[in-house]
Design brief:
- The strands form two sheets. A two-stranded antiparallel ribbon has the order 1-2. It has a two-stranded antiparallel ribbon with strand order 3-4.
- About 20% of the residues lie in helices and about 15% in strands.
- The chain contains one helix and four strands, in the order ββββα.
- It is rod-shaped and about 75 Å long.
- It has one domain: Zf-an1 domain.
- The chain is an alpha+beta fold and about 70 residues long.
Length: about 70
């Protein structure tokens, strides 16, 4: 299956030379890194959510005072 780079339009073979980004586009080798193309994926927010799911807030049961 052939596709085109979302940044420059170069023809890339998806899976061999095309890289699928987390923003949803397929890019060539020159534009596969996030600083080389304008992707709308929020890596910082995704990392924050992953840490929040992995480490839930643990609260102790309240004890009655004597």
């Amino acid at each position: 299956m052939k596709s085109r780079c979302a940044a420059c339009g170069r023809s890339v073979a998806w899976g061999l030379m095309g890289y699928e980004c987390q923003c949803g586009g397929v890019f060539c080798g020159a534009h596969c890194y996030t600083d080389r193309h304008d992707g709308g994926y929020d890596y910082r927010g995704a990392g924050r959510d992953a840490i929040g799911r992995a480490n839930p807030i643990v609260m102790a049961d309240k004890l009655d005072k004597l």
